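We were asked to recover a plausible sequence for a given structure. The inputs and outputs are reproduced exactly as logged, with field labels preserved.

PROBLEM: sequence recovery
POSITIONS: 78
GIVEN STRUCTURE:
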């Protein structure tokens, strides 16, 4: 995945889509830490969590930063 790609949100951990728009455009790549909480795992130790690749995506009139693992490339940019 890279800047300029057209992407679709495919949530693996979220229960719903982040946007009603079917696709968005990647405008920046970054890394962030993500805490994946469950009923059994409610405490976060940020020192043990490794950063994950994220994409900043323009959807509709706003930007969303989302883990790359929850995105699918629809059309690759050149």
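RECOVERED SEQUENCE:
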């Amino acid at each position: 995945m890279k800047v300029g790609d057209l992407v679709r949100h495919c949530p693996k951990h979220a229960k719903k889509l982040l946007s009603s728009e079917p696709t968005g455009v990647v405008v920046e790549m970054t890394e962030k830490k993500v805490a994946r909480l469950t009923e059994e795992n409610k405490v976060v130790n940020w020192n043990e969590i490794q950063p994950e690749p994220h994409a900043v995506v323009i959807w509709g009139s706003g930007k969303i930063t989302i883990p790359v693992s929850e995105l699918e490339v629809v059309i690759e940019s050149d």
